[in-house]
Amino acid sequence: MTDDLRIAIDLEAAEPPFEQVRAQLAGLIATGRLLPGDRLPTVRALAADLGLAANTVARAFKELEGAGLVETRRRAGTVVASGEHTADVAVMALAAKFAAAARDAGLDAAAAVDIVRAALRAPS
Predict the structure, then answer these.
(1) pLDDT digits (tens, 9 = 90+) for 97-116
(2) Boundaries of each HTH gntR-type domain copy (predicted)?
């Protein structure tokens, strides 16, 4: 699970482990690697993967929730929050995926832009 999230803890660093977890998850959200609605691992699972105490990971999640980056839902667990802070990042991540798919399909930039324009004009 942490391989997908690419979280690494340096126990020798001056920064406490909970802050390392918080900062790395916030970075994944900010760069669009984690999108609104994406589910985070459970506190216990992430703690076990990272070799940390559950309370350490819980503190990181609490800090992220306080910043409005994640939401904890009873049955759904902790998910990336939606909101203005993530809208641009989410669209940019989708645009990057589209650009890669367009290149893979052999489309040039003009054809890809034409597809986007047509999609924007289409009714929702």
Answers:
(1) 899 899 999 999 999 999 99
(2) 15-83
